[in-house]
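Lecture 7 notes: from sequence to structure.
We start with the chain below.
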Amino acid sequence: MVVTTAEAPDAGLRETAARLARELGVPYVPRRRYTLRQIERQHGSDGVLVAYSDQLKYISDNSPPLFFHPSMGLIRAKRLLSGGSDAMIAASGAGPGDVVLDCTAGLASDAIVFSCAAGEKGRVIAVEASPLLYVLIREGLTRADTGLPEADAACRRIEVRLGDHGEVLRGMPDRSVDIVYFDPMFDRAVASSSSMRPLRAHVRHDPLTEEAVRQAVRVARKSVVLKNNSGSAEFARLGFTPARHSASAVAYGVIRIDEGDIGRP
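Predicted structure tokens for the same chain:
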């Protein structure tokens, strides 16, 4: 990967691109008159991270552009903020003032919904193992302009961390957050979700481990939640009770926490 800018960048945009290149440990390539395809070929790169004035885009010849967008998260946030319900929030029991650890941030759609539910007095920590996705969502959340001030504020409240969720969990004290949330890449793709295709190439596909769930149960005060396909065998394998069935291809499994739960499953 290399980093460049949009055409005709100003000094600030060039500095942003150079800073991101240093952070990611990859070359910064001045745009000059080159096309993105020329830059990719000249540097033998498998993709180009492009800094625009309002967003970042990762562009590769092999897949659609990848960039931060609230997507369905914004639709769900609007519904929640207007007094509606959300299946993930209902399954987790998240509410105002809660602290949520999202262990698999992806493009942060679920973190945005959690941030809306937790409100100004709550806190959402979103952990992402991919340096590319981490940069995309960190920069995207700070620049979010959804047209809804409450949703923008929810985006800016999210604390994004780069790291492995297993290591993050092991380093946290007992009962230090209210909810721990996992959204590993589904064991089969959701066929109707076109937004999943570019994302799948840049996330870890390791299965969720029993040890990670055990640590999550130790760390959580209220619940541990797993998102997966409806009917997935992962719920039973990892000790989650499926939430109320719906017609959606997406389902949630829950472990409710009580004082006797340290050490499960």
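Points to note: The mean pLDDT is 90. The longest strand covers residues 220-229.
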